[in-house]
Design goal:
Strand content: 25-35%
Distance between the termini: 28 Å
Strand order of the largest sheet: 3-4-5-2-1-6-7-9-8
CATH topology: Rossmann fold
CATH class: Alpha Beta
Helix content: 25-40%
Largest sheet: 9 strands, mixed
Number of helices: 7
Number of domains: 1
Length: 216
């Protein structure tokens, strides 16, 4: 899955993955990450998620990365924020009062870009990637961030053969394998959500579970 896929999705407004409401798992479990008060939170593949606003309201500076300029522009415009644009390496940096989004490829990030980060929130990144890219994603995460950096990760699980991703099914065993020996994975939440998601039922799913983890 190359960047053109995501550029096309945003260009054609095929963004069913976008949530208008603040994610409940973020609200319910963020405190359990142990993220230090006032620490910068990194949000990979952030799209135009309003979760960034919630994190900022909790007193966290927020640093997102997003490949689509359409998504980044929409985030600031839809929330009435007059961002300043500058250049940071291969990224266009959009910034407004503690909210920063680097527009560019996640895999182009360097540790120095995330030097101030104290925690990570991933609701739509790992599940956006096909199996072949998820190991690379995890390796990049481990390379970029100190071992003490906590992450709140949200995933979906369903029979992958019943539906093409994204979002992709990411099993608990895969999550644990991706970070085995280098990070501790603790499941915080597990629940069947198929009944509340008719669009996934319409796509033929017989089972759909959502899980949340703390990774540290």
């Amino acid at each position: 899955m190359d960047p053109d896929f995501w550029h096309a999705r945003w260009r054609n407004s095929e963004i069913g993955f976008h949530q208008e409401e603040i994610n409940l798992h973020l609200q319910n479990f963020w405190a359990q990450t142990g993220a230090a008060a006032g620490s910068t939170v990194f949000v990979p593949l952030c799209g135009k998620s309003r979760d960034l606003l919630w994190l900022r309201e909790q007193g966290h500076p927020v640093l997102g990365v997003e490949i689509s300029a359409i998504a980044v522009e929409a985030f600031f415009k839809e929330n009435g924020l007059a961002a300043v644009q500058t250049t940071q390496g291969p990224f266009t940096r959009w910034e407004y009062e503690g909210l920063v989004i680097l527009c560019g490829d996640y895999f182009d990030l360097q540790p120095g870009d995330l030097a101030a980060v104290g925690a990570t929130y991933d609701r739509a990144s790992l599940i956006a990637l096909p199996p072949a890219m998820r190991q690379r994603y995890a390796e990049q995460s481990i390379r970029l961030l100190p071992v003490t950096t906590p992450t709140l990760l949200v995933t979906l699980e369903y029979p992958q053969q019943e539906m093409d991703g994204p979002p992709f099914s990411v099993s608990e065993s895969e999550v644990r394998t991706l970070f085995a020996g280098r990070r501790q994975v603790t499941r915080l939440f597990q629940q069947s959500i198929l009944a509340e998601n008719p669009r996934f039922q319409a796509r033929g799913l017989s089972r759909l579970e959502e899980k949340a983890y703390r990774i540290q």
